[in-house]
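Deviation from plan, reported transparently: magnesium ion complex.
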Amino acid sequence: MAKIIAMANQKGGVGKTTSSINLAACLAVAEKKTLLLDLDPQGNASVGVGLDKSLFEEANIYHALIGAKPIKECIYKTELPHFDIVPSDNHLVGAEIELVSELARESKLKAALAPIEAEYDYILIDCPPSLGLLTLNAFNASHRFLVPMQTEYYAMEGLAQLLNTVRLIRNSINPELSMEGILLTMFDSRTSLHKQVSSEIRKHFGDKVFEAVIPRNVKLSESPSFGKPIILYDIESKGSEAYLALAKEIILKERTEQGSDLPPELPKVPVEILQGASEQPIINSEL
Ligand SMILES: Nc1ncnc2c1ncn2[C@@H]1O[C@H](COP(=O)(O)OP(=O)(O)OP(=O)(O)O)[C@@H](O)[C@H]1O
Ligand SMILES: [Mg+2]
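Because the crystal trials were delayed, the predicted structure below was used instead.
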């Protein structure tokens, strides 16, 4: 059965799509069968792996979500073996509205994915920058969530809001949802603020923060316009190195977890982060 991971952060431009594409590609080169599911109407991941929008107009995640097509008909191959994608385009904006009046509207993605779960090792869901119905569907369908995060001053506040949302989801529709990890992105080791914030995040979240850190790397921002993941665009870049290290960490972590009967450790949310993020701060809530 696939491990399903929602790549989520309601903050825009933090590296969700870049991380989804490149982590998926790196898992695929490790011979893990990987599906990238583009759940953002912006469709950046779809174009970023080299798909032509006109190819998937009639069969994409929108059609699978509203039940017009089985998801199998919405899967496309990428340039890399073991790396498939379910693309998205701006029709998906309509799905959010169309689904509002439907029963079990938060379970549409989970139901759509059920027939293909056994065919993959990993399914990564590239979420849009909001905590709306699409992200809710992603959280409901996932085992884990991974938070790409920039090392900026306000990053922790956004994280607190995200964790509060996950907590609500765990208390209602998906009790199993847990954190895969926090991924520091666009990191610049020469900037003292980046170093300060990163050590704050590590202090609070300990081993929930991936050791792999994604540096700010121009090759990573160029590669989508060539329709290629970084490892096909420039394998020797710092960006390639970082995403390969991340994939390795995730694969190794899964092996350790499989060897244990205990559920993965859950992070405690520090009180000071939660204050101000919610009207009723949740003290040391476990996620
Ligand atoms: N490590 C990096 N180094 C340099 N540029 C990067 C890096 N990661 C992402 N970028 C660039 O930053 C911009 C935002 O990245 P990306 O699209 O991955 O973020 P996102 O969280 O998916 O955004 P959105 O919230 O709009 O979906 C893009 O132009 C991308 O190419
Ligand atoms: Mg994106």
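The radius of gyration is 18 Å. We consider this an acceptable substitute for the interim report.
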